[in-house]
């Protein structure tokens, strides 16, 4: 069914992005922009209706599960890490969230040094319909320089999506170049080490701090490339304690 587009759980993305199986989506962000938090939230939404794999090359399965439970329950992550601080109400919320989480068709794989052929084999073996890769620059690949390696990985992930019909959502680290001094938001040119990433992607989104000096502040998710539609910004309210990004409504 050609109109069966992917749901993201953020209204502007649900109405404006026409992403289908076999597409390659890249979400870029500088360190601590909240890429993993956003990806996990999107994965939980998609796993309500699709088989989703989350290949984490940086964060352990246990930590990601704690983050997901914080997001699902609204119980602050620090309390989950220090259970002696949980109230009865917290425990009840977590129990309900754990029940919801266990019913999601979501599998977290946290081995490091994975290569694209290994990710491909897992995706096909486990019949994943969507695979998240966190993150592109640390996927194992060949190439003499970082540029060559990242280009090869990006092309291989695009090929994985196109040839298998799996939706691939890869996170990518953005370079800090020029950002600290000027506070300028990132652009497609910010994809670190490789211009190939922006060329390969069907959709490229950039996640960044609304105020570059406020790490706990709100975020902007910029749709910077969208082969099938328009470009737009999605303002997001950041709740780091509860591992949640919420759509802040339309900007004027």
Quick rundown:
It contains nine helices and nine strands. The protein has helices at 11-16, 35-46, 61-73, 77-81, 88-103, 116-125, 146-164, 179-182, 196-200, and strands at residues 24-29, 52-56, 106-109, 130-134, 167-173, 203-209, 219-226, 232-239, 244-247.
How would you describe this structure to a colleague?
The chain has 252 residues and is α/β, with parallel strands linked by helices. Helices cover 36% and strands 21% of the residues. It has 9 helices and 9 strands. The protein has helices at residues 11-16, 35-46, 61-73, 77-81, 88-103, 116-125, 146-164, 179-182, 196-200, and strands at 24-29, 52-56, 106-109, 130-134, 167-173, 203-209, 219-226, 232-239, 244-247. A 9-stranded mixed sheet has the order 3-2-4-5-1-6-7-8-9. A hairpin with a 4-residue loop joins strand 8 (232-239) and strand 9.
Strand coverage percent: 15-25%
Indicate the low-confidence ranges by residue numbers. none
CA gyration radius, whole angstroms: 18 Å
Q: What is the H/E order?
A: HEHEHHHEHEHEHHEEEE
What is the average of the pLDDT values?
Answer: 90
Alpha-beta content class = alpha/beta
Q: What topology, given as strand order, has the largest sheet?
A: 3-2-4-5-1-6-7-8-9
Question: Which outline best applies?
Answer: globular
How helical, in percent, are the residues?
25-40%
Distance between the termini: 35 Å
Number of helices: 9
Main sheet specs: 9 strands, mixed
- For the secondary structure, the number of strands is 9
């Amino acid at each position: 069914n050609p109109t069966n587009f992917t749901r993201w759980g953020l209204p502007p993305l649900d109405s404006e992005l026409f992403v289908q199986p076999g597409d390659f989506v890249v979400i870029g962000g500088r360190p601590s922009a909240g890429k993993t938090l956003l990806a996990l939230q999107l994965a939980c939404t998609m796993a309500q209706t699709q088989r989703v794999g989350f290949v984490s090359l940086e964060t352990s399965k246990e930590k990601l599960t704690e983050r997901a439970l914080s997001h699902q329950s609204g119980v602050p992550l620090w309390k989950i890490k220090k259970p002696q601080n949980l109230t009865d109400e917290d425990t009840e919320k977590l129990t309900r969230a754990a029940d919801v989480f266990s019913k999601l068709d979501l599998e977290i794989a946290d081995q490091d040094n994975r290569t694209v052929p290994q990710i491909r084999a897992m995706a096909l073996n486990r019949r994943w319909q969507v695979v998240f890769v966190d993150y592109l620059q640390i996927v194992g690949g060949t190439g003499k320089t970082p540029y060559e390696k990242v280009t090869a990985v990006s092309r291989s992930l695009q090929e994985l999506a196109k040839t298998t019909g799996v939706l691939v959502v890869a996170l990518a680290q953005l370079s800090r170049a020029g950002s600290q001094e000027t506070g300028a938001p990132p652009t497609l040119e910010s994809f670190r080490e490789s211009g190939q990433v922006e060329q390969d992607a069907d959709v490229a989104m950039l996640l960044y701090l609304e105020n570059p000096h406020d790490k706990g502040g709100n975020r902007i998710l910029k749709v910077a490339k969208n082969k099938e539609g328009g470009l737009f910004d999605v303002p997001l309210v950041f709740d780091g304690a509860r591992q949640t990004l919420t759509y802040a409504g339309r900007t004027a």
